[in-house]
Design brief:
With about 350 residues, the chain is an alpha+beta fold. It is about 35% helix and about 15% strand. The strands form four sheets. Strands 5, 6, 7, 8, 9, 13 and 14 form a seven-stranded mixed sheet that branches. The protein has a three-stranded antiparallel sheet with strand order 1-4-10, with no helix packed on it. Strands 2-3 form a two-stranded antiparallel ribbon. Helix 6 (about 245-255) crosses helix 8 (about 280-300).
């Protein structure tokens, strides 16, 4: 690995690399913002410690520790010697200098690869929040705390365009943390450069309610049906591999909008009957509603009190074909409370 040995000193000794004190300053700001928002601070990972086995090229943003998703680091680890067996760039006894921050546990990262997407997201109803600007594209990532059901990893699109130009990073998807310096090739000239991820909007991490967040980003979810819950899903059902996901999404949206467990049960039971093949595990539908209610109560810091009792009362006729509500009622409820695409027929 002669290439590895030759490349390493230039990367670790670059004059563009921030000093340990400079790095710690922005790390402290980030950690403080996480704490202010009530977010878990054990969410960091080491990046930029490996080389491509085939080409010998440095991988500046890649997570390199095996099983990194299951062994996050605390802020206290920033200054400890890097003793990782998988790290190929750190000198013995020196702290690791390249870090990532992992999304999850209410922390959501809106990562844009196109300035047009960033500008469009900035013009939605989403509030201003902490932003960290990338080294290469110079486009900020937005940090949010979400109250409510778990947000999924999603790809983001410029409306009417086919290529993804960003992500909602929500579950074991990470971004590079501030004051991490990476080498890169200029997108226009191909010139070798270095750049540093930097906090460029140092304000509180905004806390946003789930439905409000999803309503704001829905125009950017593209045409992939797996990313949307549409009125067509409710009306026609979905195929076997999508049933559980779509039904749980529907339950979460109804419950978090304040719709009763009974109505929610009847609604998702109606959708379940339209699926191919029909979804007939009615006890599982009740569990979906219970889980959706627990997500909501956790977000609002209240105890789940009435949901269990209500669940005991609902679905008394679950084994019959009788429907408590009509499709029109379901669609009208969605139109009033939620933000589904393709709901013109609900008028």
């Amino acid at each position: 690995m002669t290439e590895t040995t030759q490349t390493q000193p230039a990367l670790t000794r670059s004059t563009a690399t921030p000093t340990l004190n400079e790095q710690q300053e922005q790390q402290k700001i980030l950690v403080q913002r996480l704490k202010e928002a009530g977010l878990n601070t054990k969410c960091f990972l080491k990046v930029g410690g490996s080389f491509d086995e085939k080409t010998g090229e440095f991988k500046p943003k890649a997570a390199f520790e095996i099983g990194w998703q299951n062994k996050p680091y605390n802020p206290e680890d920033f200054t400890k010697p890097c003793n990782s067996a998988e790290c190929k760039v750190c000198s013995s006894g020196k702290p690791h200098m390249r870090w990532g921050i992992n999304a999850g546990q209410d922390l959501i990262l809106l990562d844009s690869d196109d300035r047009r997407l960033y500008d469009a997201l900035s013009n939605t109803s989403l509030p201003e929040t902490l932003e960290v600007t990338s080294a290469r594209r110079k486009i900020p990532a937005k940090y949010y705390a979400i109250d409510g059901p778990k947000v999924e990893n999603l790809h983001l699109y410029i409306p009417e365009e086919k290529a993804s130009v960003g992500e909602v990073r929500a579950d074991n998807w990470y971004v590079v943390a501030p004051r991490t310096t990476i080498p890169y090739k200029d997108l226009k000239t191909g010139e070798d450069k270095t750049g540093t991820y930097t906090i460029t909007k140092n304000i509180a991490i905004a806390r946003v309610e789930y439905n409000s967040f999803m309503k704001a980003i829905t125009p950017f979810l593209g045409s992939d049906p797996a990313q949307r819950l549409t009125i067509e899903d409710i009306e026609n059902g979905v195929s076997e591999g999508e049933r559980a996901t779509v039904l749980f999404k529907e339950a979460c949206k109804f419950i978090h909008a304040g719709i009763s467990p009974q109505f929610t049960y009847d609604a998702i039971k109606l959708t379940a009957s339209k699926c191919t093949p029909p979804f007939t595990d009615y006890e599982e539908l009740k569990r979906m509603i219970k889980n959706a209610a627990q997500y909501k109560d956790k977000a609002q810091n209240i105890q789940t009190t009435n949901t269990a009792e209500q669940l005991q009362q609902i679905g008394a006729e679950a084994t019959t074909t009788q429907e408590h509500i009509t499709l029109k009622e379901v669609k009208e409820t969605f139109k009033k409370w939620l933000y589904l695409e393709g709901d013109d027929e609900a008028e």
